[in-house]
User: Fold this.
Amino acid sequence: MRLVNSAEESSSSNQDELFAAALAQEVVRRRNFAIISHPDAGKTTLTEKLLLYGGAIQQAGAVKARGEQRKVTSDWMDLEKQRGISITSTVLQFDYSDTTINLLDTPGHQDFSEDTYRTLAAADNAVMLEDAAKGLEPQTRKLFEVCRMRQIPIFTFFNKMDRPGQEPLALLDEIEAELGLATWAVNWPIGSGEQFRGVVDRRTKEVILFDRAERGKQSSERHLAINDPQLQNLVEDELLDKALEEIELLEAAGSEMDLELIHAGELTPVFFGSAMTNFGVRPFLDAFLEMAQLPVARISSDGPVDPLTPNFSGFVFKLQANMDPRHRDRVAFVRVCSGRFEKDMNVRHARTGKMLRLSRPQKIFGQDRAVVDDAYPGDVIGLNNPGMFVIGDTLYTGKRVEYEGIPCFSPEIFSWLRNPNPSSFKNFRKGVNELREEGAVQILYDTDQSKRDPILAAVGQLQLEVVQHRLENEYGVSTQLEPMGFQVARWVTGGWTVLDELGRIFNCKTVQDAWQRPVLLFKNDWNLSQLQEDHPDLELCSVAPVVSGVDPIKL
Ligand code: G4P
Assistant:
């Protein structure tokens, strides 16, 4: 009897070991990143080239139809096409040289920073893409701050080197001085614009020649040793000498390559290239895969959770309704954080404690989707969301974990949303509730129950337009917006009791959020500081605190 038991024990421990080894192998193969940039820096173009290398698309232009309005694999909404902007984000997974890469696509327009912010919560690395002629731009700075807060490693790619750009040393200085981020150039440009001849790879001491490849084609990228006599005929002496002098300067005075500092988000590897002409993209991808952070331990209520923990866990970082208008579906995007996810798995929903069977997990690639059988840390899966998930929700098997939530941006634009047609109230209500759940906009409510119209609270004006547009197109309700004239919102940390004790307060309007917590709206910062001067003990918070364990109220 004892013999049988010990045989069983040893076979189960063998299985555990095999599982752990297989899991470790998958985790080591995974890289995950998001691109942060200012509109027009070339994010769509770079994404397209990366996908071409990964074989995920077969031809250039599959991502972005040239000559017509902007259209990205991940841009699926009419409004995006009409306005030529990228609002929503999805995930693009592709394999390249035995690595599975998850590219978390982020919207380019600043009015949708909140969506980008949530996506960055699911990213292990970020690529900061800059136009070499423009250097740092506002949207990039803002998104960089989010990366810094989360200590995400940043890889910098200076794009458009085929066009006249700023001096490369000045570009590095700007990052160091303005972002306080040390730089380490992996390659260094030889000339720029018409005189761009290629880059010197500082690690291999090779020159990679630029050959102005036909648009969309993969460039041949000829490599020559730095002392190869052929170089004399291919690159002007003064251009090569200048590049080599600058490299010497970097060797003497610049930072050293240090993987630990890169992973701590304190040192950024820098690359120069041209996404449009497909120059420098492959070397960038190769170096990125080598240096990028593997799926990292995520912070939960019980401390960090190692991705190699055998039990599955993950969190919802994005919700999206009606991605495919033909199916009217609602998808919750889950970042896998630990263990192995399997189709048909029973998992626990941390906020409600309910068990769920995940029977149709999907891999989403722009508009296309396929059922996934398994997924590993660093991957993102799409779950059909029949209204039970909110952003930040944790799913797990085994021992309970709950990941730290994703706070919202503080809204700055407030508007009543009117539904002039009472017969469409049902659709209006459904649309408002669903769009709030997916975080398209924050919804506040008047404290006076008789005023049933919701208040839309947004970070950017376009967010409101998107809500109206979607209500009309997806729910068949035409609505009106009535601006409220407030610009600042503050959550009262102590809740209604504290507010009641305060008595009457002036120059602000009290409303409530979907969790029935008091929110004060002010016309300007001055009114806010006045209140704070009058009530120095009143604790206010500029973003909605993360909620756990309760369901939001609905319209
Ligand atoms: P975004 O997603 O960051 O907004 O930028 P996107 O890729 O759409 O690129 C913005 C513009 O910059 C595009 O030109 C694109 O072709 C161009 N571009 C991207 N990378 C490079 C590069 O390496 N060199 C040069 N010279 N241009 C680059 P467009 O005129 O707006 O569009 P299109 O007519 O080229 O499609």
User: Anything to note?
Assistant: The CA atoms of residues 465 and 481 lie 9 Å apart.
